[in-house]
Amino acid sequence: MPRDTGSLLVTNIGELVTNVPGTGAGGPLGLRRNAAVLVEDGQVAWVGPARDAPAADRRIDADGAAVLPGFVDSHAHLVFAGDRAAEFAARMAGQPYTGGGIRTTVGATRAAPDDELRATVARLRGEALRQGTTTIEIKSGYGLTVADEARSLRIAAEFTEDTTFLGAHVVPAEYADRPDDYVGMVCGPMLAAAAPYARWIDVFCERGAFDVDHARAILACGQAVGLGVRVHANQLGPGPGVQLGVELGAASVDHCTHLSDADVDALASTTTDWVSGPETTTVATLLPGAEFSTRSPYPDARRLLDAGVTVALATDCNPGSSYTSSMPFCIALAVREMRMTPAEAVWAATAGGARALRRDDVGVLRPGARADLIVLDAPSHLHLAYRPGVPLIRHVLHNGVMP
Length: 403
Ligand code: NIG
Ligand code: FE
Fold this sequence. Notes:
The chain is an alpha/beta fold and 403 residues long. It has helices at residues 85-92, 102-111, 114-130, 146-156, 179-194, 212-224, 241-247, 261-268, 288-294, 301-306, 327-337, 342-356, 383-386; strands at 8-16, 32-40, 43-49, 58-61, 66-69, 71-73, 133-136, 138-139, 163-168, 200-205, 228-233, 252-255, 271-274, 277-280, 283-286, 311-313, 373-376, 393-397. It has 13 helices and 18 strands. Strands 1, 2, 3, 4, 5, 17 and 18 form a seven-stranded mixed beta sheet that branches. The chain binds N-(iminomethyl)-L-glutamic acid and fe (iii) ion.
């Protein structure tokens, strides 16, 4: 491919996070100093020392700053209408979070026209991108009728390849007395209408939402039509969600706030040897924005990491339990509150998210990867946790272009 058709060199990178282990200074972040990245046709074409960089049509001078792969936010609920600011205020005044507010958002979402939902997704996707998120997963789950789940996913698919069918978010009010009928509907006509727009299926497996038998049945139906499995598990209390996810070969179990030793062992039992070393095929995706916004105890990332479990960080962006689109905020929380090192948190927010979505083209900077990267207004990845709340994203490249 000719170098003179639209190549772009990002150079004078003081610290480059590649997530290619064994690179440069080593460690899982694969740090390189004084590096450059050549981008062609939306992909990374070359990575190496700045002094050896090939010529390119255009340059971005990082001026000694840090460059990282774009963040991979593997858990977000962006298709909804309205907000629940009053519910948040009540929580901050002492009310507990139970997930009951989901039905409020379902009512608002059903009543909203397509354009309003689309505009909300576009606004939040843009907000996330400006904060460095170049890959995002988007769930349905606030429609909960055949038509509303299908349109939520159709709209989500306009923004991402990683769409997730979450018809089993809660049992909607009109089915409150007959949850078996709702599960039958989710597995039947709702799945049929949703599947063409979905890559994944998810269930909120929790007391007050779906029990383990219903969750297993729904996830198995999704698997049977080719969807990958993810589970909202062990968020509000101990429960069977994590072990169900492992049993079904889920790519990710998400939240993991209340874990037993058996849950941690189950996750660790999915360890396999990757090129980069041992990793678990079921990732624990931690969502510290939810604990922040519900004033709940944080999950213990250290316990999972010490057991060898692969950990991802994601925002859980939604109007109820975590209305943030900021991966840097989640990194800062994970370091301060969940006993992750800054390097572990940055890895979890990039490569970890990619593992949780079973993707090898993002969350990494090596030739052939998608040219998704961020230039920080800081000399090192450490600053993402060290300078919380500060807008440190100077430039974002997505598919090789500045959006
Ligand atoms: O991941 N836990 C279930 N679903 C969302 C919350 C949704 C809501 O409160 O609207 C979550 O936290
Ligand atoms: Fe969620």
